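Sample intake sheet
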Amino acid sequence: MPQTVPGDAVTPLPSLAAQAERLIELGVHELARMSAAELRAFADGADGDGDGGDVLLAVHPERAPASALAPLLRHGGKPGFTVVDMPDVDRFAPHGIELPDTPLYLVTGPDRGDRMANWSPEEALPALTKEDRSPLVLTEGIHWLLQQPAVLERNRCFMTIGSRLRKANGTLDARTPAIWISNGTGRDGREQRNAPKVGWCWWNNRHTWLGFASATGRRPQQHGA
């Protein structure tokens, strides 16, 4: 097992009401086929749950898939993109994780997982499970960055190994989704340098600049939004 590194610096998330307004500003409610009023109502009803700045508002991936959310990301003025060799990005579904069966839900205690930089996904998953933490799915990682773009730092990026692709033969694809900052090399193109990048890494590979984003839990929509 690789040596761990110090944990993440904790930056409180905005209030759920502010997060709702951010998603409305970006047009996410329209992607999710809901009204701005519905999104605001959910945030208003959930904002008093007492979790402080440790709760992320997420839209279920069936309502707002990764392919639609990724271009809304920003870093250094550049829009986000998905790598060209991941046209099946939306087929990466929650694996070993049961998302709330509601259009909107809450993700508690998001953490970038810096302490596991230079671990492989195969090594990180059991360690997270032992800590009673659940790896983020790809859309949750994108939602986090839509609310807190500063979470994505060069050499401090993260994987979202809660999303996996099951192949036609029943086995899991060895690719695992990650979000990092493009260097503008290869097929990314120079114009993509410093842009937020949704890509993938191999299940058994280690990367010194990728942690493993996780959460303490998820809560369903409970207020009739």
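Comment: The longest strand covers residues 175-181. The chain has one domain: 16-220.
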